[in-house]
């Protein structure tokens, strides 16, 4: 009996694409340190070093990455950790942790001297402030 390759190829390719497809996630970082303070941000994951970025007070910098797709409830394992420096301060925080951030796709952070406050805009909406790591 011949294996029905032709009939199977479309769903098979579709399924493989679905596995390879990553959600696109945007992480936005806003400088809310205080008037006149520039914020230097340096973010990295296991695969990517995004370099240093200087954000003026009130300004925003963002990065986008393609998330590795994992079926519920495992979620993505991508982790981005950042350092934040202004004046004589030097702090660290994991800016993207899918478990903590409910797999956010639009993750907006306000960086204050006390720590980062996250506004997760999609797929679940919530706001929470964290202490520095
Ligand atoms: C991500 O966040 C979860 C929940 O807060 C925590 O248990 C886990 O250790 C964090 N992952 C890493 C790699 O830090």
Automatic annotation (TrEMBL):
GO BP, sorted A to Z: rejection of self pollen
Domain of life per record: Eukaryota
Chief location of this protein within or outside the cell: secreted
Keywords recorded for this protein, A-Z: Secreted, Self-incompatibility, Signal
Signal peptide start and end residues: 1-22
Keyword Secreted annotated: yes
InterPro entries named among the record's database cross-references: Self-incomp_S1 (IPR010264)
A single GO cellular-component term on record: extracellular region
Annotated localization: Secreted
Entry-linked PANTHER family: PTHR31232, S-PROTEIN HOMOLOG
UniProt record similarity statement: Belongs to the plant self-incompatibility (S1) protein family.
Protein name: S-protein homolog
Organism encoding this protein: Hibiscus trionum (Flower of an hour)
């Amino acid at each position: 009996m011949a294996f029905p390759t032709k009939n199977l190829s479309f769903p098979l390719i579709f399924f493989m694409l679905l596995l390879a497809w990553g959600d696109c996630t945007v992480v936005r970082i806003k400088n809310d340190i205080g008037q006149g303070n520039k914020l230097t941000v340096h973010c990295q994951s296991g695969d990517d070093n995004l370099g240093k970025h200087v954000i003026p007070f009130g300004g925003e910098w963002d990065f986008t990455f393609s998330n590795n797709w994992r079926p519920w409830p495992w979620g993505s394992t991508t982790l981005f950790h950042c350092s934040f420096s202004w004046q004589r301060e030097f702090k660290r925080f994991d800016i993207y942790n899918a478990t903590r951030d409910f797999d956010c796709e639009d993750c907006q952070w306000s960086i204050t001297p006390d720590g980062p406050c996250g506004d997760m805009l999609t797929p679940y909406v919530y706001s929470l402030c964290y202490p520095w790591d």
